[in-house]
Amino acid sequence: MASWIALTRAVSPSLEHCELTHLAREPINVARAQAQHMQYEAALAELGGKVVHLPAAPKLPDAVFVEDTALVLDELAIITRPGAASRRPETQAVAHALQAYRPLSFIEAPGTLDGGDILRVGRRLFVGLTTRSNAAGIAQLRQLVAPAGCTVEGVEVKDCLHLKSAVSVVAPDTLLLNPAWVDAQVFGVPKVIEVDPREPFGANALWLDEALIYPQAYIHTQARLRAHGLNLKLVEADELAKAEGGVTCCSLIVKDISRAM
Ligand code: CIR
Question: Which residues line ligand 1 (CB under 6 A)?
Answer without folding.
Answer: 18-19, 21, 62, 65, 67-68, 84, 87, 116, 161-162, 165, 243-246, 249
